[in-house]
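Support request, priority: normal
Reporter: lab tech (M.K.)
Component: structure prediction queue

Hi team, I submitted a job for LARGE xylosyl-and glucuronyltransferase 2 isoform 1 from Schistosoma japonicum yesterday, and the status page still shows it as pending. I've pasted the exact input below so you can check whether something in the sequence is tripping the parser. The sequence length should be 178 residues. Please let me know if I need to resubmit or if it's stuck on your end.
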Amino acid sequence: CIGIVAEQNPTFYYNMGQQFWPTLGYGYNAGVLLFHLSRLRARGWDRIWMKIGLNLMNEKGVLPTAEQDVINAVLNQNKRWLYEIPCEWNIQLSAFSRRERCPVVWKFSPSNYINREQFLPDNILTSYPIAKLLHFNAHVKPEYFFPTPLRFPSTTDGMNEFHSTGTRYPTSHTRWKV
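Reply from support: The job had stalled in the queue. We restarted it manually and it finished. Here are the results:
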């Protein structure tokens, strides 16, 4: 009924523990969700998530990851509802995400730029899935440091350096507002 990717940041589990964060394993990250709506409605989704959410808030007082806490608690109580989406569909780029929780190959090359595949050994390309969706799940987003709309690999050296399109936005659009 619910498709979701495993959490790649063990911080929540280790810092809050099973007692605070009722999850299966490390839990699941709500950055990408698939809902089978007719199945959820048939199982009383409205009533279930509301009851679990209210119980969590009454018991804990605060939900550090908001709806993700509720969804994890729902899945912990309804394990058969879980459909684990392959991790490459939600590569979590927070500071404490563990790359070994989802080893992938990143292909950065649009067709008019250098082909990075020529720099990667064949066994790497065939051993790991290709990253499909990147999730900047931290308070500071890339545009805070790089306020340009597009960044591609540099075509001069073919390695990991980046250059931008040169378009700049006013800094008021890139800083956190208090």
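The helical segments are 11-20, 37-42, 45-60, 67-77, 122-127, 142-145. Confidence is low (pLDDT under 50) at residues 151-178. Let us know if anything else looks off. Ticket resolved.
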